[in-house]
Amino acid sequence: MHEMALCQSIIEIIEDEARRRSLSQVRSVCLEIGTLSHVAPEAIKFCFAVVAARTIAESAALKIVELPGEAWCMSCSKSVKIPRRGERCPCCGSYQLQVTAGEQMRVKELEFY
Known about the structure:
Blueprint (H helix, E strand, L loop, with lengths): L1 H20 L4 E9 L6 H12 L8 E7 L1 E5 L5 E4 L14 E5 L3 E8 L1
Parallel strand pairs: 1-2
Antiparallel strand pairs: 1-6, 3-4, 3-5
Helix pairs in contact: 1-2
């Protein structure tokens, strides 16, 4: 489960930022996760709770914002939203799509006490 390793990295980001600002407790963490990122939001929620135990993020609320997948259709030259990889262009039906968004995962916002 790669979500556990991702959550460990998130905790490291939080701890680094807290050290930089001389803060000791995190109130909330907001993550952006693209629908094409191969990251399961429910697994992230579970893993974050496990990894955050006994850290400065132990009582932090976790908010996940899911970002839609987007692609550029090489056939009709339009930017389109796609729910998952391997989909056809909703405009022309072509499979010649170049993913342009929705693969990312990032810590968008941290709120400290």
